[in-house]
Amino acid sequence: MLAGELYDPLDQELSEARRRARLLIKALNDTRDDQTAERTRLIKSLIPSAGEDVWIEPPFHCDYGSNITLRGKVFFNFNCVVLDVAPVRIGTGVLFGPAVQIYTATHPLSADERRTGLELGKAIEIGDDVWVGGGAILCPGVRIGNRTVIGAGSVVTKDIPDSVFAAGNPCTVLRRIE
To answer: For residue 6, what are the CA distances in angstroms to 106, 118, 135?
Structure first.
């Protein structure tokens, strides 16, 4: 699965890992604003590779959590979803607006292959000092460069370079930023 190869999502080990994540996510999503220490503990339990100063506004959802790397100073606003069947690597100083969706999960294009029930994933990488506007969707396999801004509502289907403002569906570079 992590290598981007076809896998069985009903595999017992994967099902158990998702169940574990669901319990942690429920506990995280049930925290109050005055429970900062508990929220931090739950984030670290759900996402062991979370650096310092990570904040997640509930509700938040992911498949496993263990396939997400947050280098530090990362902020997820309300209603973010991370389908982490493949690695999701997020740099430092990254901001996600509300309802951002990060999808590493995908399915075979062939209907015959889809009928097998097997799935696959493609890793996503987000550089340092990136801002992803609310409602944006990051599709499987994309890389977003350092210091880049993704406009609200964008659908990122291909790599976006460093230091640009990109927006739209499909997301395209609109201008360089410094």
So the answer is: 10, 6, 28
Neighbouring CB atoms inside 10 A of 60's CB total 21
Range of the domain at 160: 12-176
Among the listed residues 41, 44, 89, 107, the single catalytic one is 107
Structure tokens at 76: 């997820």
Residue 61 falls in the annotated catalytic set? no
pLDDT at 93: 98
Q: How far apart are CA 114 and CA 108, in angstroms?
A: 6
User: pTM of this prediction?
Assistant: 0.96
Residue 178's pLDDT is 82
CATH code, domain with 35 = 2.160.10.10
Tens of pLDDT, residue by residue over 73-101, are: 999 999 999 999 999 999 999 999 999 99
How many domains does the chain divide into?
1
Report the C-alpha gap between 68 and 7 in whole angstroms. Answer: 19
